[in-house]
Design brief:
Layout (H helix, E strand, L loop, with lengths): L1 E8 L32 E10 L6 H21 L4 E3 L3 H9 L3 E8 L10 H8 L3 E3 L20 H12 L3 E3 L5 H7 L8 E2 L16 H9 L3 E4 L3 H4 L13 H14 L6 E3 L15 H13 L4 H19 L2
């Protein structure tokens, strides 16, 4: 029985060709992370991110967040016989024992707070367990990889509040300045839910070796991203038929291992939010990737760590 914990997807804010939010996206054939597409012999836990577009601020951000939370809660209720919202690692294990899928609510973009520290408690009460502080641009907290700003005064105050309220800080999308500043602010282990190794693919969304070493030192968690542009430099946006993405994906894993991150590595697909290579284009393909990586020489112990054990341990230790 394969088990998988995926730290990031954008499925609950996925839109159709007319930019309308999908109805019931977690069980919708038009979405990549449709639970119906998970192989029947697999136990799956999915972190579902509320993606906050950069243009949303203040009242518009609150309105959008509230809309998606309501839709998400309705789906959890409508499909309660198949999936459970989980607030802890124990909840994940309970859902699996009951033969259900596990869903963890997260946020991608700190604009969901609308610059109001009191909203941290609201998000925590909704069951948000991780927050990607920024997206590509800047917001009230800090700045993404397309900018060169650092943390705001509000951001420096709100990070400890996130930690106190059981919301794990996520550094994916945070720019290099912000990452270095965050190291002086955080007190607890943090995550990069969907980021690869910059030494293998030079995109600035990926983590430098120094960042990876620091995250290993602090017992953090890193989710491997499936986006083609973060796996390989062959193609900046899209799929290059000349690239062996499966081998490149393996090379990222090997590099993380070389830096001591064997116990810190997990999966962070970016399903329904990125261009995917064929080898990682669906939940079934991810399951097949396990066997491919076995053939590349990784052990079952190492792969079980990446596919679920490292994340499960981290969640047991860092959310209650």
């Amino acid at each position: 029985m394969k088990k998988i914990i995926d730290l990031h997807c954008d499925t609950i804010t996925a839109c159709d060709s007319e930019d309308k939010l999908f109805e019931n996206p977690i069980f919708n054939d038009e979405c990549v992370m449709d639970y119906n597409k998970v192989p029947g012999d697999c136990r799956w836990a999915q972190c579902h991110a509320i993606f906050m577009p950069d243009e949303f601020r203040g009242e518009s951000a609150v309105k959008f967040y509230d809309e998606i939370v309501k839709r998400y809660k309705n789906q959890m209720e409508d499909f309660s016989d198949k999936v459970s919202q989980c607030r802890s690692a124990s909840d994940i294990e309970k859902a699996w024992d009951e033969g259900k899928y596990a869903s963890i609510l997260t946020v991608e973009g700190g604009s969901a707070l609308a610059g109001d520290a009191d909203r941290v408690k609201i998000l925590a009460d909704d069951g948000v367990k991780m927050m990607t502080l920024v997206w590509n641009g800047d917001n009230e907290i800090a700045s993404g990889h397309n900018t060169d700003k650092g943390f705001s005064e509000f951001g420096r105050k709100v990070v400890p509040l996130l930690e106190e309220n059981g919301i794990i800080v996520d550094v994916s999308h945070l720019n290099d300045i912000g990452f270095n500043e965050l190291l002086e602010i955080v007190k607890k282990p943090f995550v990069a839910t969907h980021s690869n190794a910059r030494a293998i693919c030079s995109h600035k969304r990926n983590l430098t070796d120094d960042m990876i070493r620091e995250m290993v030192k602090r017992d953090c968690l890193i989710g491997l991203n499936y986006y083609t542009a973060f796996i390989s430099d062959y193609e900046k946006d899209g799929v290059d038929s000349n690239c062996d993405y499966a081998d490149m994906f393996y090379r990222h894993i090997a590099h993380f291992f070389e830096l001591g991150a064997e116990k810190n590595l997990a999966l962070g697909s970016d399903f329904d939010g990125a261009t995917l290579p064929e080898c990682l284009s669906s939940p079934a393909k991810v399951v097949e990737m396990y066997d491919y990586l076995l053939e590349k020489g990784l052990s079952e112990e190492q792969l079980d760590g990446i596919f679920y054990k490292n994340a499960l341990r981290f969640l047991h230790e860092n959310i209650k």
